[in-house]
Amino acid sequence: MQLMSRRLVLAAAGTVAMAALARKPRAAGAGRSELGDLSALKPTDPPKQLPEITFVDAEGQEHHLDEFRGHGMVINLWATWCVPCVAEMPALAGLAKTLAPDDIAVLPLSSDRGGAAAVRKFYAAHEIGSLPVLLDPKSAAARAWGVRGIPTTIIVDKQGRERARLEGAANWSTPAAAAKVKALISG
Hints:
alpha+beta, globular, single chain, 35% helix
């Protein structure tokens, strides 16, 4: 019986070791080099109207998606505890700076239960100053929009229609990413 238990333990350890080696690396949260490109960005064809949602800003003021109609939007659903989200946020901050002159808003909706304080602390630690503190603590947007996990980024045109969606972290700070977003919003 003891011999059988040792064999099971060794077999299980070997399986775990092989699975760990074969697994794709995950974003570690440190650098942009670990982020993927936009190849996972899936166009929404035909573009579809997003269901209305409500979210709050750092002061607790309620906002509606409809308030941003007439502007392009890059909506990112994320959380400070999500490792790929942490890696992606500096790239989204870069995208926000690049797209601001084109009237395209980057709206990061945090699902953190710690509220604005958690997001402010995260922004300070990562030197992110170009993104607003926006909260969706009950993940109402994710449910309304059929999001399967975070981070998820949704590109929305000026008519409030979803044009594309990307599940997972990506390097949004490249010129190619900004050009792709502009093309989708104006398309």
